[in-house]
Structure formats: structure tokens, C-alpha cells
Amino acid sequence: MSEEDDFDLNELDDKELVEQIQDDLYDGLDAEVTEGTEILLSRGWDANDVLGEALVAGMKIVGVDFRDGILFVPEVLKCAGAMKGGMGILRPILAESAEDTSLGKFVIGTVKGDIHDIGKNIVGILLQANGYEVIDLGRDVPVSDVVDAAIKHEVDFIAGSALMTTTMPSQREIIKELKDRGIQDKFKCVFGGAPTSKEWAEQIGADGWAENAAEAVDVIKELT
Ligand code: HCB
């Protein structure tokens, strides 16, 4: 708990606690977000619900205020750190629920020039939790590295995240590189990220697009 908040998170009811986690995420309070996440889990909350209702919803509020010039990069970096604190608790729990058999193999990464990786990480965690093997290439990944990794690891799917209008074209470049190398049929490409859309994905010839991580799992299951 931070010095200015002299109350115990355990005393809050679920609704208040979810709001408090979102406030703490907004304030970049890593330890408090982690503690709140643990308390919700200890009250029997499903890890997916904690992720969606507390953390991702909290990050949406951050996104709006960043867009509106109320929050700036250093503050949003702290929010991202706090988000990762909460995700650190949820990741092993979600991974534990993974099915034994691998439904398919993925490479996933945030495209070249883009360092936003929170959404990509969530997609990776949920894919793993649903029985897919995930090779995470990280962020700011050059197109050729994505394609090389897909070949090397003999994956079934390529997932690429782009969070900026300026980096979206890298998703098209991935498809182009696959075509240029004559291997487009070997992989299914499923893309996402806030500025992208179903129309964009269709336009560039992707196999699928998802608005969020849960939808990504559904789209990929349909393609599997
Ligand atoms: Co950043 N940033 N940012 N940022 N940032 C955005 C993305 C803007 C939209 C904010 C704004 O201006 N409104 C904007 C981009 C505008 C544009 O499109 N042109 C922006 C900008 C401009 C910038 C900088 C250029 C700012 C600067 O330096 N002046 C800079 C870029 C640096 C770079 O990449 N080269 C920058 C930096 C940062 C950080 C470092 C402070 C931080 C990132 C920390 C990190 O990720 N480790 C950050 C953040 C956090 C954001 C916002 C606020 C939140 C992004 C986020 O994590 N959302 C974002 C605002 C927004 O998106 N509305 C803002 C939460 C996750 C859960 O959602 O959409 O990422 P998601 O992922 C979803 C979904 O899209 C889908 O599933 C995920 C989970 O449900 N999905 C996929 C994602 N990838 C998928 C892949 C698939 O295959 C399938 C589904």
C-alpha cells in the first residue's frame, strides 16, 4: 500500500477492489496492483476475469487519458510496469490451465518500430492457456526475423501486433515477405492491435484478425 493510502485492500468489497486496482494501475503502483490481483484470486475470481475486468479495463482508462494529453509517456510507462506486475501473478495460473496436447505452434511478436507489448503478451498467455505452443519474439521485430523464426520453428501460425498507425504496414510486409519467398500457404497469419481492423486484415490478405485476446483464441481455433 502506498503511504497516502492508509487503508487495507482486503477491506474493500469486490467492486471497490476492482476500481482500486484500476486506480492503482493508473498511478503506476506495481505492488498495490499485484496485491489487489492476489486478493481477487484468493476470493475465487477466475484469472481471466481478473485480467479483463481489472487490468485490461484499467489500461483502457490509461489509454483514453494518454490520448487526451492528461497522461504522458513517463507516467504511462509506470502504468505499463504495474500492469506487468499483475500479469506476472496471472501468467502461471493461466498457463497451468493449458491443455496437454499442442493444438498448434505460433510465433508472436510486436512488429518493427513498435515497442507496445502488453496486448501481445496477453494474446500469447491466452494462446498458451488454450493449448498452443507460443514462441514469443518480443517487440520491435523486423519482418524478416518473423518469417525466419516461423520457418525455423515450423510453426502453423504467425501472430503480429501493431499498436500504431505508423507500424501497421509491417503486418502487410509480413504477408508480402511470405509471398515473395513462396511460402504463404505454409502459415496462417492472424493480426491485431488497437488501430487495426477486420477490414485492414482482409485488405492485406491476412487469414484472421482479432479485437482482443479472447477473440484471437476463437479466431485461431476456427483456423486450426
Ligand atoms: Co503508446 N501509443 N506510444 N505507449 N500507448 C498508443 C498506442 C496510442 C494509441 C496513444 C494515443 O496517442 N492515443 C499512440 C499511437 C497513435 C498511433 O496510432 N499513431 C501511442 C504513441 C504515439 C506512442 C509513442 C510514439 C509516444 C511517444 O513516445 N511520443 C511511443 C511509441 C514508442 C514505439 O513503439 N516506438 C509510445 C510508448 C508507449 C509506452 C512505452 C509508454 C507504453 C507501452 C508499454 C508497453 O507496452 N510495454 C504505451 C502504452 C501503454 C500505450 C497505450 C496507452 C496502451 C496500449 C496497451 O497496452 N493497451 C496506447 C493507447 C491505446 O491503445 N488506446 C498508446 C492495453 C492492451 C491490453 O490492449 O490493444 O495492446 P492492446 O491489445 C489487445 C488487442 O489489440 C488485441 O488483443 C490484446 C489483448 O486483448 N491484440 C491482438 C493485440 N495484438 C494482437 C495480435 C494478434 O495477433 C491478435 C490480437
Bound molecules: 5-hydroxybenzimidazolylcobamide
Q: How many strand segments?
A: 5
Strand order of the largest sheet: 2-1-3-4-5
Topology order in helix (H) and strand (E) letters: HHHHEHEHEHEHEH
Low-pLDDT windows of residues:
none
What is the percentage of strand-forming residues?
A: 5-15%
What is the 3D form?
globular
The level of helicity is 40-55%
Backbone structural class: alpha/beta
Please describe the biggest sheet, giving its number of strands, its sense, and whether it closes into a barrel. Answer: 5 strands, parallel
State the end-to-end distance.
45 Å
The whole-number mean of residue pLDDT values reads 93
Radius of gyration over all CA atoms, rounded: 18 Å
The tally of helices reads 9
What does the model show?
This protein has 224 residues and is of the alpha/beta class. It has 9 helices and 5 strands, in the order ααααβαβαβαβαβα. The chain has helices at residues 14-26, 30-42, 47-67, 73-96, 118-129, 143-152, 169-180, 198-204, 213-223; strands spanning 104-110, 132-136, 157-161, 188-192, 208-210. Helix 1 packs antiparallel against helix 2 and helix 5 (118-129) packs across helix 9. The longest helix has 24 residues, at 73-96. The radius of gyration is 18 Å and the shape is globular.
